[in-house]
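<discrete_fold_record>
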Amino acid sequence: MAGRFVPHPNPHRDPHPTPVTADGHALDLRLTLTPLRRGPEDPAFRATRDGAFWRATRTPEGPATLRVRALEGRVAADTWGPGAAWLDARLPALLGAEDDPGAFVPRHRLVLATHRHRPGLRLTRTGLVMESLIPSILEQKVTTAEAYGSWRRLVRRYGEPAPGPAPEGMYVMPEPRTWARIPSWEWHRANVDSRRAAVVVRAARVAPRLEEAAAMPPAEARARLELVPGIGPWTSAETVQRTHGAPDEVSAGDLNLPGIVGWALDGDPTADDARMLELLAPYAGQRHRAARLILLSGRTPPRRAPRRAVGDIRRL
């Protein structure tokens, strides 16, 4: 698909209208695509002032850059690089064409209100495993700020500049063999402990087998990923949510999600994974979407403990 930015002729109208998909559902590009962003300074993802979203990625056919934006009620997209055709063919899935928001039935007042206020939420499907798996591994048992910083440093250090006229500072993530060859001292400089580094290396060494999981049903895909030591249910769920647009895969094992879901649905900020899954049971088949809507509601439990300090192994 291709498009061209044309300045809006009427400055009093919204210059970035929400497009409507072929099935009649609204599409909010920001809500749909930002789960792919790993922090505000992600070198592989950028939102620009003209309303465009840029994504640099590594496809099976090579590096590629995508620019997508809403223009006059439609989606305009451009792609560059060896993997451009691959991205073009999969753009509808990336924008949630394979998602079925009509299958979701809100069963709580808070979820219903958020669902009504966020009609353009679609679940993205990238079809690419490693680009979601590696940053999810980096996010294991550390703050998001730590993980985002590590991802940013490693992609800038070992990736390659995004093809085409991408905004300055955008990079395509390294290929698997490069991840596998990063020396120990560079992991340390990127604030990644040896355990997480080892998991990334193990995954990179079997990357072709893991990429096959993109064509499997979500449960089978998660089982394939979890064959790699160090990849557990939380990491596999975080990955398939993006690779498959999986509406039912919940991030069990998350530090904050059970308390947020418990507080939103039952007023219980101490809920654990078992209680969270019990509360989400009415949304069977759509539990991930329900959890996303709860997060988007902004209803979070009151903080009872100091914010977790950002760690830095580079000082050790």
